[in-house]
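Quick one: co-fold with adenosine monophosphate.
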Amino acid sequence: MLHLYNTLTRKKEKFVSLQKGIVKIYSCGPTVYDYAHIGNFRAYVFEDLLRRYLKYKGYQVFQVMNITDVDDKTIAGAKKEKIELNSFTQRYIKAFFKDLEKLNIEQAEVYPQATKHIPEMVNLIKILLKEGFAYEKDGSIYFKISRFKDYGKLSQMPISNTERREQADEYDKENPSDFALWKKAKADEPFWQTDIGKGRPGWHIECSAMSMKYLGESFDIHTGGEDNIFPHHENEIAQSEAATGKKFVRYWLHCKFLLVNNEKMAKSKGNFFTLRDLLVKGYNPSAIRFLLLSTHYRSALNFTEQGIKQAEQALKRLQDFYLNINNYKKKGSISFTRRIEETKIGFEKAMDDDLNISQALAGLFNLVKDANIAISKEEICGGDLKEIKNLIEKINTVLGILEFAQLEEIDKNIKELIEQRGLARERKDFKLADEIRKGLKQKGIILEDTKDGGRWKKIS
Ligand code: AMP
Ligand code: ZN
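Sure, here it is.
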């Protein structure tokens, strides 16, 4: 039974979806004013792991991820380049999708853009005005937090603690801790002419309006990085629950920051790497994905390039093992049947415990280690290795780190080279045969000529 840590209750809770068999998730997505950094991708990879594991468990997943394409930063960026806001943000939206693909992050079902949902936001603000949760001042509209008695329930900040709750808006409000729902149009800034005046939305309202549009007034899971808890998600709850009177979200999940020298990786700190930066340096995107997902999402993860190198090694061990399995034909005497079943159960038990990936991976790598030993002693039988291969493929639907098509291609190329070598030897062209053997050795492939024919092994 899956348990997830709910930020709202600060407890691990049994996960039960509102609708049987379907899970509805909203994830806070990128603000598209620049390339996303890999701190952002820690959040998106964690959300992908959650999504994939829910699917592994048989749920149908419907996930929505917003794209913030109008805010202070996007407006400033477009202004600086003297181009339309839309052309400016389009560049980073495209880059974002390319990065997702590189990291093998599954696509959400919907990626709503804020600028395409202004009427939905205006409607929600109208309800809040009508019900007395919002007020207008000098052409802007604010949420009055003193009217919403549950304010602070997610961040668990007492309502009296106004100092910490102060929300940085340059606009003039009745109370510094109120927040903007709608910002009056300014010269040089894009605006929309609407029933509530000429202006543009505040940041928080887009997530309430767009999540409820696509997922309903109450839905299962809302995710984001830990910096989203306050004020963003606190404000989303206030806006949504004040308007509907219903519980907005059942499970709130937040991942811890990706750190650099124990500080949050952030654009503003200048201590960030984009995915592109790392790919240019020659790192493998699957290893970056592996690094980001292999630490539990609620544990701190300190980023180093050494960390990517270690992830590359671990990934290579798994890839090489997979290749070796394809080429093992012996009939050993030790049965792995029970061990394989236990590894599968162990993986699920660990993942059911709030996605305890470190433990889940440890079980898989132990199996690989022991199977490798059994392969070298020729104690394992081909049938069991096939079962292990099936298990790796199943687990990889969750991990998304192995590219089987690519591995099969490598396997095919190696077999072709080995065949060519055999033919060269038949022709007594020992020079060519030797060159092929050396070339393979450089790739970590060791050939063994046995009495039943040639066999090869990939070593890490
Ligand atoms: P932003 O584009 O700043 O709105 O952030 C998009 C997502 O990335 C949000 O869910 C943030 O919480 C998350 N995020 C930003 N920086 C980090 C970081 N260093 N580690 C983990 N998540 C982050
Ligand atoms: Zn959001």
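If it helps, The chain has three domains: 3-255, 306-400, 407-458.
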